[in-house]
Please model this.
Amino acid sequence: MTMTNSALDPAVAAAAVRRCRFCAAPLRHTFVDLGSSPLCESFLTAAELNRMEPFYPLHAYVCETCFLVQLEQYVAPEDIFTEYAYFSSYSDSWVAHAHAYVELVTERLGLGPDSFVVELASNDGYLLQHFVGGGVPVLGIEPAKNVAAVAVERGVPTLTEFFGQALAARLADNGRQANLVIGNNVLAQVPDLNDFVAGVKLLLAPGGVVTLEFPHLARLMAGNQFDTIYHEHFSYFSLLTTERILAAHGLTLFDVEELPTHGGSLRVWARHDEDHAKPVSDRVPGLLAHERASGLDHLDAYSSFAEQVAETKRALLDFLIRAKREGRSVAGYGAPGKGNTLLNYCGVRTDFLDYTVDRNHYKHGRYLPGTHVPIFPPAKLAETRPDYILILPWNLKDEIVRQLAYTRDWGARFVVPIPRVEVL
Ligand SMILES: [Zn+2]
Model:
């Protein structure tokens, strides 16, 4: 973010707060206010429990002009993303998803040794490695140095920089425009959306294609997935808003797919406006019409979301209060980012949840940020035999219920909080 001199005048600065990250209209409408919470990946060691913990507002607004749902940015991306603990390759299903995409896009665009593919936020090379294997030249762009180093070891050339117009112009000047630009789960994490999309336009070769994947706001709303709102995700997109953003930068959306990943995502395909060789698929106007029919082009549809979220909090607390009054024990399963949004918003600490378990060794012996619920290996469940197991990564509930079938031996019951509190 740049500071201009006018920002030093308090009156101007006050008027300048809270403007839409895309269209700069003033942000006057709350989508949902989840209170304050720590960054969702800031797990604590025992020694850190008695220290101050930074909390930031988790208040999402909706723009009355372009309907972009967004958080204000409180933490610089440099602080979140330069040393990052998330390695995409740890998730088998995500790597398989990437592999299937590479096969599909290679075939659809006829990519080969003369093509050039760039992925923005390429993480540890989980995706580009499949192009490298097929002999297609690639470049990854990944600001997190520790993660990028893994990609380079894997044979994926990677630049450790943040992407925007400056870097795109430098690549284009060096004759390195891309036939395919990929951005998976990066758009939400971009503080300067216009600089990023303008960079995509510059980087894209004539006749090139960009594909972007991101969680679909319509699914977040329909599925009551408020716990997927984190400080690290600055923006939440409908197709209507995405089309406007691309159009503002000379890009035409020509196809869209609905994917099951992350609770319901979109994959959009875009090209230069002037590239008429790629007709617009019927799926684009079809999904836009569906979003309009759901009211996503009017504020009313957004203003009812907050009450739905508040009701979910009341229902979860109702259940927990009842369970505790009946003398039941409740343990958690999983320590995902979304669990931290949920527990902090609902004020659920060890007074309700004895502990949680997770398969990630890094988290064992640590505590959830904000709520300080301890994290143990999954074997803890068989030791303490809780009456209820609250599944925090609800998107994986079928898989988890299968894995934990043995807990039925002592009559444990599973509870999911989202889309509504339900005992399975
Ligand atoms: Zn806007």
